[in-house]
Amino acid sequence: MTDEMMDAVEKENVVFFATATKKGIPNVVPIGFARPLDNKTILLVDNYMNKTRENLENNSKASLVPRDASECPYQFKGTAEIHTSGKYFDDAVDWAQSVMSKLSPKAAILLKVEEIYSVKPGPDAGKKVD
Length: 130
Fold this sequence. Notes:
This protein is α+β, with helices and mostly antiparallel strands and 130 residues long. The protein has three helices and seven strands; from the N terminus they run H-E-E-E-E-H-E-E-H-E. Strand 3 and strand 4 (41-46) form a beta hairpin.
């Protein structure tokens, strides 16, 4: 991810996170806690994931698109890791509770970005960027 992409994801207050079952049944949910950790990793906080979490436990492939595609017209695809303890989990809990003290995150999800595609309308829509 470029600095511009990371800044746009950081500034979004909602991203759309897509997963699928082993059989390929899709699921997409809005996530209010997502931010880049570096140019290959996006942290998401699992506060209320149910189907999404089940999907990730059985199929770690996932995709993320920022809510405002005009600001950040990219789809980030990769492999998700679930952390229920350790540094990433502790960081996710601290972040979520600093925003809303009543939250009790269940996990930190790390999306390891492997591919980036354009979602900008026009002739380059759907083309691989990285």
